[in-house]
Amino acid sequence: MTFVNQAQETATAAGRVVSLWRYPVKLMLGEEINSSYVTERGLVGDRSYALIDQETGKVASAKNPRKWGKLFDFRAAFIEDTPPQVVENILPSVRITFPDGTQIFSSDQDYINHALSKVLSRDVRLMRATSLHKCFREFWNG
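Above: the chain's sequence. Below: its structure in token form.
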């Protein structure tokens, strides 16, 4: 990373990016990427999905590791590069790899919800950040 001081027109190195990771689904392992578009919300596609506990209506959170600790055994990755347009509604599907190696796509909504619920022993629903009701947003980044 280089920052330019416009008053002096000199460049100062503030650090170096060694690797870049994006986490398409909150609480799941993510994917190493070569580049990404950045918005005021961060990397495009980062934490664009989360699991909603159907019993409580809350977003799965690391603040409750007994309930959600198994999520760190899953990996999520976009099936293609995120588009240059910064429009969250046109993100590609996410491939979720389960602990046993099974892979299911976010586009198969009914099947993925059933499979996730079965493995986690809780009724959950995979949701996009843009489709969440306002009351969920307070839990999204926590």
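The chain has one domain: 19-140.
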